Amino acid sequence: MTAGRQPRSRSASRLGVASGEARAGPDWFDEGYRHIWMPYAQMQTAPLPEAVKATRGTRIELWDGRELIDGVASWWSACHGYNHPHIRDAVRRQLDVMPHVMLGGLANEPVFTLAARLAALAPGSLNRVFFSESGSVAVEVAMKMAVQYWRNLGQPKRRKFVCFDGAYHGDTIGAMAVGDPEGGVHGAVADLMEGQYRLALPRDDKTLADFCSFVGAKAPECAAVILEPLVQGAGGMLFHNAEMLCAVRDVAAAHGLLLILDEIMTGLGRLGTLFACQQAGVVPDIMTLSKSLTGGTLPLAATIATAQVFGAFLSDNPDRALMHGPTFAGNALACAAANASLDLFEREPRLAQVRAIEKRLSAGLEPCRGMAGVVDVRVKGAVGVVELDRIDDVNRLRARFIAEGCWIRPFANVVYLMPAFTIGEDDLARLTETVVTVVGEWSALRPFAREA
Ligand SMILES: Cc1ncc(COP(=O)(O)O)c(C=O)c1O
User: Fold this and answer.
1) Closest ligand 1 atom to the C-alpha of 175?
2) What backbone phi and psi angles, to 5 degrees, belong to 378?
3) CATH number at residue 418
4) Domain span at 218
5) Looking at 347, 370, 404, which one is the last position of a domain?
6) Which residues are near ligand 1 (CB < 6 Å)?
């Protein structure tokens, strides 16, 4: 892979230039592109986005008829594949009855049913569900809950969070403040965030001892520890083991800190159990969910608290209530989709599918190990990662995957696969073979890329 940038057209008349071929685009593209601000994109140099016509199962059909095998599941959310008929039917039925009604003071069936179902599925006494519309907001709500929990208990000084290098919890201000701005994507606005305590994630005796002594010293000013259990996702697809998760839980508990586990990426099957924390037998005080909650069809997030946390908000004093209420909290369409998604977890062998994917990812990505520039190959559940020493031109690497008919989006220094749990054996094999091919090319051309 050479480091030079391709010249790029800003016009749909050259749509698909990233894959090396110019094609005519749809008529909505040019005018829309002049006005849209795309996520995570340097708009001056980013390749034009691929125009999507439709999605189906684990395939993305592009406007010009090409089809991509999806290795990303729309940022890890479309766990049942796209357009699952059961979710589609549930949303259609709900649309006819009531797409949305405010949750303040009004109840609707899908949201109440979903709250009860999530409470039954969540481990331990996690049984109070607060709904919002995105993962970042679910994290904000968890943080608010933790700080106010202590205020309600008469300890208002406990309002800092202990978080970890490599963490990613979302793009809103509070969520960014407990993420890792250096390793992550928020360096440009790092000044905006109130300082929290960010430490190395315990991975060995030394980092565990450091974590332990830090928490011991700072506990009186700390509300909670926040962590993505077992896999830190957008911070670099970094893994830690169940033993370390238990150790974090034990240290937090020993010093009275709440434990917030952000299962937005790991929860709902991605690591082979319904929730990642179950692999360690750890029950947090607060847990966040989103992404796969609606099978990736509609925006919805949940912040689930234990009975004990919820109890601290009960009072004759209105000031002790949790003052949060997004306009679209408990949106009936999204909750209908989430209930249908939970039906699928009950009726179809999702966790077994994830375990089969884990085996295929391990075998399929193994040839990358030992290639020059490959730092690590690791797999946990339906997360397969090839870590490179560096990626000089991520856009070029992404374009190679598209040219091979795969939707794979390397970032930072990782190439990863997180497909739908329903992906067929052949499509998964195509994804892993393509990773091996493209990483192999990258590995062979790497010295030249460095010189360019
Ligand atoms: C662990 C984790 N927390 C929070 C978020 C933020 O979710 P959203 O993008 O829905 O705001 C993400 C998104 O990738 C995530 O992976």
Assistant:
1) 4
2) -145, 150
3) 3.90.1150.10
4) 85-347
5) 347
6) 75, 134-136, 139, 168-170, 228, 233-234, 262, 264-265, 290
Catalytic residue among 262, 285, 380, 416: 262
pTM of structure:
0.94
The catalytic position among 165, 168, 180, 427 is: 168
Average pLDDT for 97-108: 98
State CA 237 to chain mean position distance: 10
The amino acid at 202: P
Give Cα separations from 187 to 176, 180, 190, 414 (angstroms).
10, 9, 5, 19
On whether residue 14 sits in a domain, the answer given is no
| Coil, strand or helix at 385 | strand
262 catalytically annotated = yes
Q: Which atom of ligand 1 is nearest to the CA of 139?
A: 4
168 catalytic, yes or no? yes
CA–centroid distance, 318 to ligand 1, in Å, is 31
Which residue in 307, 296, 230 sits closest to 261, CA to CA? 230
Q: Report the chain's mean pLDDT, rounded to a whole number.
A: 93
Q: Which burial class, exposed, middle or buried, applies to 34 when counting CB atoms under 10 A from its CB (0-12, 13-18, 19+)?
A: exposed
pLDDT-derived band of residue 257, with 50, 70 and 90 as boundaries?
Answer: very high
- Per-residue pLDDT of 112-156, as tens digits, reads 999 999 999 999 999 999 999 999 999 999 999 999 999 999 999
- pLDDT category at 3 given cuts 50, 70, 90 is very low
